[in-house]
């Protein structure tokens, strides 16, 4: 039940004592009101009211230094929700008129003080406060609903627009209607992509995903507003789009610098407030609504290059990968040769070496993201088709995850899936253990618990823990820690990540614990391992 706090302001001790007894008396046992404090003058009343922020202020008018009406006039704007009740020995109309002008809730004569009248005044003040709070709550909900509707409308419109469903004129009309602030004479587009999206979808329910995406859209809008003019919108899946304009007098070099700075701000703010990693790709300078779609396509192409470069990067057209159509047949040929060697009897080591060799060559030649992802899906199905023992293993979740992963992680996931299939066939691992290992590989960036992994294979934690140790000859925590450190070694082969970046990528709580695990499993510190890598 709502309890309303009250402050008394009066310079007469007898009145203060009478009111204190009133609040402590049996008539106030309903518990709806409590006495928060008392003051002896208008100045003291202001200081105490600003500190306590009472719901109701009961005050005398005539007091030394500052009278009650002057105090109310000063507090009215600073405590807009407070209700004021005047207790006065004067029934002068002049005072009453000023009280009405200050929107005072009630005006009572305090000599003699009628407690029933005061109680009625408090009840009326509480009712007014309750009605105000209810109205404000309804307005907030309405505003939230309107913002959410605008968010959904904007998302749908720009999804359709960028797929060619609307023309430039329709885009201009939409921008005017929804007051989208963009100077179309000179602007650029940027695309933001959430990294590790499969983990994001596993970690959060659909409702929480929508809330976090809405939050990310707001972060983009605020970051744009601090840098220039423009707007942002969520798109489908893990993508967001933004448009930003700066003065057209900027040189090409200055424009590039502005894009890099805005991109770094986006990456930093999303990391700071949502604890998520994003990549950002920019277009070149564009002009007019007619270039909007092409501007988006260029930004998307830049962002797609993070497929090879890695997560958390800012990519502009000057840094974009130059793809060559003649390289695609070579990549397909290499993949075909790899598949030819995947035959019954292949060892785990041979499979790992084949995939590593393909990764090395494909990273140099490079195919566009969508084409490479399609090729790897076909590779997975072909490999399964050749190995009869692997055909029962489901790849639906794996195929869905591949769409959102960078190239190296795609290959890593395919490798782990095929290795798990091989181990399942050769060592007769229980199906639940195979599924658990695949779940661990797909959620390496999360802080994995026994409960989570057991839920993923539909077993109770106690039974799953016992089964895992029996099948794997090591406990779940030990296995997960080992795989995380092995993954960190793979990452350090690619790039000189900091310890904190590795912790974020592997779902490890803090740097000290990571270093302890690293040394325990590898026999050297991360720093020593980096030196070895650089010497090779």
From TrEMBL:
It comes from the Bacteria. Residues 5-126 form the Response regulatory domain. GO terms for biological process: phosphorelay signal transduction system. Residues 434-532 form the HTH araC/xylS-type domain. InterPro entries: CdaR_GGDEF, CheY-like_superfamily, Homeodomain-like_sf, HTH_AraC, Sig_transdc_resp-reg_receiver. Keywords: Coiled coil, DNA-binding, Phosphoprotein, Transcription, Transcription regulation. PROSITE patterns: HTH_ARAC_FAMILY_2, RESPONSE_REGULATORY. Residues 115-142 form a coiled coil. GO terms for molecular function: DNA-binding transcription factor activity; sequence-specific DNA binding. The modification 4-aspartylphosphate is found at residue 60. PANTHER family: ARAC-FAMILY TRANSCRIPTIONAL REGULATOR, HTH-TYPE TRANSCRIPTIONAL REGULATOR EXSA. This is Response regulator. It comes from Paenibacillus thalictri.
């Amino acid at each position: 039940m709502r309890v309303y706090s009250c402050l008394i302001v009066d310079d007469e001790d007898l009145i203060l004592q009478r009111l204190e007894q009133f609040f402590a008396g049996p008539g106030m046992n309903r518990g709806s009101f409590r006495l928060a404090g008392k003051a002896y003058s208008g100045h003291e009343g202001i200081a105490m009211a600003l500190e306590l922020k009472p719901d109701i202020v009961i005050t005398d008018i005539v007091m030394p230094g500052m009278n009650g009406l002057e105090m109310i006039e000063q507090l009215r704007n600073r405590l807009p929700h407070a209700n004021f009740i005047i207790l006065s020995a004067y029934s002068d109309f002049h005072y009453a008129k000023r009280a009405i002008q200050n929107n005072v809730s009630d005006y009572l004569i305090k000599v003699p003080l009628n407690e029933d009248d005061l109680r009625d005044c408090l009840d009326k003040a509480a009712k007014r406060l309750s009605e105000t709070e209810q109205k404000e709550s309804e307005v907030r909900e309405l505003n939230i609903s309107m913002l959410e509707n605008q968010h959904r409308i904007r998302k749908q419109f720009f999804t359709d627009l960028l797929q060619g469903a609307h023309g430039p004129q329709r885009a201009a009309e939409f921008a005017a209607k929804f007051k989208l602030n963009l100077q179309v004479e000179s602007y650029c587009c940027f695309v933001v992509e959430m990294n590790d999206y499969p983990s994001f979808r596993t970690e959060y329910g659909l409702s929480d995903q929508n809330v976090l995406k809405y939050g990310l859209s707001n972060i983009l809008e605020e970051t744009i507003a601090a840098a220039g003019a423009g707007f942002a919108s969520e798109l489908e899946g893990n993508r967001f789009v933004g448009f930003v304009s700066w003065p057209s007098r900027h040189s090409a070099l200055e424009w590039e610098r502005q894009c890099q700075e805005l991109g770094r701000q986006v990456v930093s703010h999303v990391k700071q407030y949502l604890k998520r990693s994003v990549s950002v790709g920019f277009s070149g300078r564009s002009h007019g609504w007619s270039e909007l779609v092409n501007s988006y396509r260029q930004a998307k192409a830049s962002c797609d290059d993070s497929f090879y470069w890695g997560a958390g990067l800012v990519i502009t057209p000057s840094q974009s990968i130059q793809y060559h159509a003649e390289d695609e047949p070579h990549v397909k040929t290499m993949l075909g040769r790899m598949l030819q060697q995947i035959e019954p009897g292949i060892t785990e080591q041979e499979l790992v070496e084949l995939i590593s060799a393909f990764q090395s060559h494909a990273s140099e030649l490079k195919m566009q993201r969508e084409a490479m992802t399609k090729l790897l899906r076909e590779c997975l199905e072909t490999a399964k088709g050749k190995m009869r023992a692997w055909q029962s293993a489901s790849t639906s979740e794996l195929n869905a995850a591949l769409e959102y992963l960078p190239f190296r992680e795609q290959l890593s996931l395919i490798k782990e899936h095929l290795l798990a299939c091989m181990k399942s066939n050769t060592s007769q691992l229980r199906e639940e253990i195979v599924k658990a290992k695949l779940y661990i590989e797909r959620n390496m960036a999360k802080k994995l618990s026994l409960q989570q992994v057991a839920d993923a294979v539909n077993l109770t934690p106690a039974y799953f823990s016992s089964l895992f140790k029996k099948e794997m000859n090591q406990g779940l925590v030990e296995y997960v820690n080992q795989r995380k450190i092995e993954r960190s070694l793979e990452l350090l082969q690619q790039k000189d990540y900091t310890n904190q970046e590795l912790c974020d990528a592997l779902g490890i709580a803090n740097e000290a614990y990571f270093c302890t695990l690293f040394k325990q499993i590898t026999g050297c510190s991360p720093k020593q391992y980096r030196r070895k890598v650089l010497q090779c």
